[in-house]
Amino acid sequence: MPSDDNGKGVAFPQNNKGEKKDRKKHGKSIGWIIGVVVLILISLTFVLPTTVFSSGNSSSIEFGRYNGEKIELSYGNYFYNQLSAIMASGSVSNQNVMQAYQQAYYLTVLETALRQMGQQAGISVTDKMVDNAIVQSGYFNDENGNYSSDLYREASAMEKSMLRMQLEETVPAQMVMNDISSVKTSEGEAQFVSSFNDNVRAFEYITVDYNAYPDADAAAYAEANGAPFTAMDLSVITLPSETAAESLLEAIQSGERTFEDAAAADSSDQWKTANGSMGQMLYYEIQNMLVDPSGADTVFASAQGDITGPVQGWTGYLLFRADSAASSPDYSDSEVLSKVKSYISVNDPETMDAYLSAKADEVYAAASADFTGAAESAGLEIAEVGPSSANPASSQFIIGPEYSDSSTLLASAAAMDQEYYAELFTAEDNTVLAPQASGNAYVIARPVVPEGNNELLSSYMDTFYTTYMPEITVQDLQAGIMNSDAFTDNFLQVFFDRILGPSLSSK
Questions:
Q1: Residue 43: which residues within 8 A CB-CB, separation 6 or more?
Q2: Is 194 part of a structural domain of the chain?
Q3: What would the 3-class secondary structure string for 163-212 be?
Q4: How many independent structural domains does the chain possess?
Q5: Quick check: 357 and 435 in contact, CB under 8 A?
């Protein structure tokens, strides 16, 4: 029998009132405990939807096989207990029934494979091992989370017998998983992985993007293509459904509520803190907010004070209030010009690139002689990328530019061109590299000697690899099982034929 780990065997405290404790207090089924005791590590790394099921079908249904052993659903078996545990974890819906079955199915496949490994390794289960599993499972824990001999004593003989039988089958799988996940990383292996971070470089780069486009050219472009840049002061309220938006609109129009109060109380967008006020918005900005861009026509055709909508946006249903009439914006305003430049970059990239490519070449020529001076003369900023190692394959064990580039533009440029990536890590220090495209911008970079040394980075990677390796080992094991030739997977066909089919035909 399970003990309290006090070296004195099992102690059964007496209830002074002679009354049994309510067995419902711990509220756990055998399915729950099996799900906790077995494959704990798998549940942490093998991510599957957490859903519930509802089915009156208790007959045996075979969904697949592993090494010839049936993966079947039948009353009281591991598959059934997993489904029971999932059922207890949430609410039933028509949308997640298949996911619930699939989650329990995959856990059963993993348990079967691990159990078979345990059998092949000659693992035998003793009564003491099962006793320990019962104590550690938490099934008989009290309200304080401690094992209770009282709760164990009060359980029915059938309940304890079923629990022991289930654990006798599943403890070998747990032992195999513990052994696999506790494999130690050799010092040589850790040093080998750490060595990938030995060639450390840092970088500086100048970005030439749409902000470098001349103000005069942007104003001329906007005046020649006026429609997208029509301006209007607007306020907005964003609601989760069309019905809610219509109801709120009626309340505002009837005078029951004000637009400002409703925006502050009910809206879900960023402008609610300003009582819904968006300030001046350009026509194309409103288009970008809507599922159907033509809805912007109605908004910009409204008179000052009018409320339009609800219109479906990407984040909900919107009510717009015109706080001014539509007009042409002030093209001497820097904020307006920035919006115009952004529009050109996205919607007319050829026009923008024709300027930026030439500008980037100009800055590059100057930067080759004076990197910092070239950036200052052009009114551009220099971004810095911290110590990085070459990581063209995006390994999680190497700290490459993708982890160190807060602005992301250099990392993006390198990821799109392997030759450029190699050049970043092979060019001599302070060599200014030719402009490289990064999205709708250009970067002009140079490698520099990182400040300090690489000891901290190497130490971090040593610790990270050693700590994370057990999880990777488990993930590799899971992938190997699911992709094994020994696994025959008929889940989808069986689910639709035996579970979903009868369910539909009974309606």
A1: 35
A2: no
A3: HHHHHHHHHHHHHHHHHHHCCCCCHHHHHHHHHCCCCEEEEEEEEECHHH
A4: 3
A5: yes
pTM above 0.85, yes or no: no
The SS3 assignment for 383 reads strand
d(CA 193, CA 45): 22
Residue 276, phi then psi, degrees to nearest 5: 95, -10
Domain boundary residue, one of 272, 299, 327 = 327
H-state helical runs in 348-381: 349-367, 371-377
For 397-453, the pLDDT digits (tens) are 777 888 888 889 999 999 999 999 999 999 999 999 999 999 999 999 999 988 755
**Which residues span the domain enclosing 286?**
231-327
CATH number at residue 33: 1.10.4030
Q: Give the residue from 357, 378, 346, 340 showing the smallest Cα distance to 217.
A: 340
- Tokens coding 313: 């946006």
As given in the structure block, the two tokens for residue 131 are 């006793």
Closest CA to 319 of 236, 390, 381: 236
505 CB-contact burial (10 Å; exposed 0-12 / middle 13-18 / buried 19+): exposed
Does residue 193 sit within a domain? Answer: no
> Using one digit for the tens of pLDDT, what is the confidence trace for 305-322?
999 999 999 989 999 999
321 and 406 housed in the same domain: no
Residue 417 lies in a domain: yes
- Under 8 Å between Cβ of 42 and 28: no
Residues 6 or more apart in contact with residue 141 via CB below 8 angstroms: 26, 147, 148, 151
274 and 300 in a common domain: yes
Q: How far apart are CA 124 and CA 134, in angstroms?
A: 17
Count of Cβ atoms closer than 10 Å to residue 316 Cβ? 18
